[in-house]
Amino acid sequence: MEVEEENISYQHLLASDIDGTLLRDGEATPGLKALKRLIAAHRDNVALVYATGRSFASTIGLVESGILPKPQAIASFVGTEIWMPAWHRSVGYQTAVESDWRPEEILYWAKKVFRLRLQEPEFQSDWKLSFYLDSHAAVFDLRAFLQSKRISARVIYSCGKYLDIIPHQAGKANAVRFLRNTWRVVPQNVLTCGDSGNDIDMLTAPRTCNVAVGNLEGELERLSDQGHFYVAELPYAGGVLEGAAAFDFWPRLDVNPKSQDTSA
Ligand code: GLC
Ligand code: MG
Fold it and tell me: What is the tens place of the pLDDT at every residue in 84-96?
């Protein structure tokens, strides 16, 4: 699809992770209702993006069931894909992501040398290889090994159990940057929110406003004293609200002059 979204622009962008940030075990969390009201009130000038480890199909399922509001874009499978309404994959992003991606070789070594256990087929894609892994220790070895073979890839460890290997040009931060360039949003007007390892690149991006919700995972907590992101006291969606307020993120709602009473 050649027609990308070049004519659309937004003032602000809210990029949020879903699981462990807005939802807990697939269910709404305290604060989500209030967040949905704010998102609805700012619909015209704040673009909403889900930056998630989930597939596009499972994300859109949450939207259709009404648990989450409809976003302006979905960066699914750990920012390896970007989907835009009326739901097509962004070709521009895909082209960037695909370059220098050698999944067959990665899979070969991951199994042969590291004996990694693959996640189920529905969690795999052409641009994301996902495994289960109990310990963080192997992550450093795997990164070093791939580097020694000159295989370019990003190795991401989340929640003490998930390991994703994705193209070097992919990831949540790259997806958010692509969208903010597309929509011409200045980084200071971008709020990113997350809870775990696959959010680290997004939450450590310079110049954007970044929030880790209060229930952040250990791999993120270890970075919490480096000043890249605000750590909310409140968990889940309440933490997103808290972080947004801390950064004074929500733009002032303009009073429409036409709707003002001019009879006086
Ligand atoms: C989601 C995905 C899984 C991935 C994990 C961490 O749970 O389903 O494949 O490993 O996020 O990114
Ligand atoms: Mg998460």
Answer: 999 999 999 999 9
Altogether, the residues listed in the chain come to a count of: 264
In 3D space, the residue among 57, 209, 212, 32 whose CA is nearest the CA of residue 122 turns out to be 57
pLDDT tens column, 174-228 = 999 999 999 999 999 999 999 999 999 999 999 999 999 999 999 999 999 999 9
Closest ligand to the CA of 202: 2
On whether both 82 and 205 belong to a single domain, the answer is yes
Give the end of a domain, one of 147, 166, 185. Answer: 166
Note if the pTM is more than 0.90. yes
Q: Are residues 226 and 187 in the same domain?
A: yes
Q: Which atom of ligand 1 is nearest to the CA of 163?
A: 10
The domain that contains 126 carries what CATH number?
A: 3.90.1070.10
Tokens 């929640």, residue? Answer: 159
- CA 112 to ligand 1 center in whole angstroms: 22
Closest by CA to 191, choosing from 21, 31, 25, 6, is 21
| Nearest-atom index, ligand 1, CA of 156 | 12
Range of the domain at 134: 102-166
